[in-house]
Structure formats: C-alpha cells, structure tokens
Amino acid sequence: MLVGSEVKSLRAGLVSIEEAYARMEKREVWLVAADIQEYKNANAWNHEPKRRRKLLLHRREIDKFAGFAYEKNFTLVPLKLYFKEGRAKVLLGICRGKKNYDKRESIKKGDMQRDIDRAMRRGR
Prior knowledge:
single chain, alpha+beta, flat, three-stranded antiparallel sheet, Small Protein B, Chain: A
C-alpha cells in the first residue's frame, strides 16, 4: 500500500531494496527497510523514506509462500520492483540465511582480498 509521492518516486527510480526484506505479522506481509526517497515536488505531503509498507497478496500467496517462510525460518527478500498495468509489483524470493561457518568463511575471504589489494597498492 503506497501513497502518491511514493509511486512518483518509484517511477523516477528513487528506490533501493538492497537492505529490504519482507516479514509476516498477523497474516499480513510487510516490506521492511525498503528505501523510497522523498519526491522533491511533494513538499508537505511527502512520505517517510524507510517506513514499513504492507504488501497486498492474495490469501493463497500468503499461505503458500509467506507461511512457508515463517514456519521454516526462511527470509522473504525482494528481488525486483516493477510496474505492471499501472501497479507497483514486488518480486519476492525465499532464501535461507547464512550459517555461522559460512559467515566466517565470507569474512576470511574479504580479509584476504583486502590484504591482496593493499599489497598491490604498495607495489605500485
């Protein structure tokens, strides 16, 4: 459920869903941490950029996808935001979070890459 200034910002491409995720609460699905920047021409009727937004899903979609994610402890992640027949749509994906050993491996890989980059800069 969007307000008018949010739709205009979406059409202008002023949106970031990199940190966003969807959460199910009381048989409703909410989009959390999606950053839709303020529309500069809306003035006093502008929206809050990082507010929670209710996603309008059919009951069977909520039961099938969001219910599965809620029960199995998966996360609903927005993959794509697009317009279809004048309506803003969000493509959601179901994913599993990293385990602790996966996180440690990612951190180790990042540290190694950072050390390599430092060595390359010193060598120049």
